[in-house]
Specification:
ten-stranded mixed beta sheet, Restriction Endonuclease
Length: about 260
């Protein structure tokens, strides 16, 4: 039996995204918007191909029960079996009910410090949380199983306080002039609920919430629910062992976080 080389598969997928970026720059030149659109489509196509049928992948706006809409979002992953889209415009933009949404992502071809992309996306997250209605489904087993715990929550064994919280991520295909030191003070000044759960700089590393325990790092995918005073935001490059690559391992971890979101569904 020939074993499946998972790291090599993610390495190949990451290389496809890198090539898409390079091709877009070569074809569109100084037309940054057009080149960016090509990269966004390559990432959405990858997610659509890789995720199970229960996931709906699109770009567009979130809409709440009162008709309030978010700004344009690069990628929205929602429940394909529960009204995935209210409306689709001629350019393919979808209006997706927020209560069907698992994940929202920001896709960038290149990290440019001067554009403040993480800070801007954090502002989008804040705007969604403050201006769109999204009824939270609380985990009744969050503080431990007790007489008020629902069987649903006892069997789910989730460690997040809110079961249907939206998972936010950023992905940059090229790290550009990224240095974590340039943004660490911003992370320290913001509440976790207004920051992406994870940021992926494909060729450099990941920004995530974690605690260091001796030689090990324990990652918390739900920073808002943290009860660990030792946690902080770290920039972590993953090693390129076992036939993989930095880019492939970072893409693989993003995929893992998306298919296991803090959600009931």
């Amino acid at each position: 039996m020939i074993p499946l080389n998972i790291p090599a598969i993610f390495k190949s997928d990451a290389n496809d995204m890198i090539k898409s970026r390079e091709d877009a720059i070569r074809i569109h030149g100084t037309n940054i918007r057009a080149a960016g659109d090509e990269v966004e489509m390559s990432v959405r196509d990858y997610l659509l191909r890789m995720l199970p049928p229960r996931y709906y992948v699109a770009q567009g706006h979130l809409v709440d029960v009162s008709g309030n809409a978010s700004s344009q979002l690069d990628v929205i992953i929602s429940d394909n079996f529960n009204l995935p889209s209210l409306q689709t415009t001629k350019d393919g933009t979808r209006y997706i009910p927020i209560d069907s949404v698992y994940t929202v992502g920001e896709i960038k071809s290149t990290y440019k410090k001067s554009n403040r992309p993480i800070e801007t996306f954090s502002g989008t997250i804040k705007d969604i949380s403050e201006n769109l209605q999204h009824l939270e489904i609380l985990n009744t087993a969050y503080e431990g199983v007790n007489t008020d715990t629902l069987l649903r929550d006892a069997t789910l064994e989730k460690n997040n306080r809110v079961l249907n919280r939206i998972f936010y991520f950023c992905i940059f295909i090229n790290g550009g002039d990224f240095h974590f030191e340039d943004i660490s003070s911003f992370y320290s000044s913001q509440p976790p609920k207004q920051l992406p759960n994870i940021v992926v700089i494909l060729d450099k590393g990941l920004i995530l919430r974690a605690s260091i325990l001796g030689p090990s790092i324990v990652i918390n995918r739900y920073p808002e629910d943290s009860r660990n005073d030792q946690e902080d935001w770290y920039f972590v490059p993953f090693s390129n062992e076992n036939g993989g690559s930095l880019e492939g391992n970072h893409l693989g971890y993003l995929y893992y976080t998306i298919v296991e979101p803090p959600s009931l569904k």
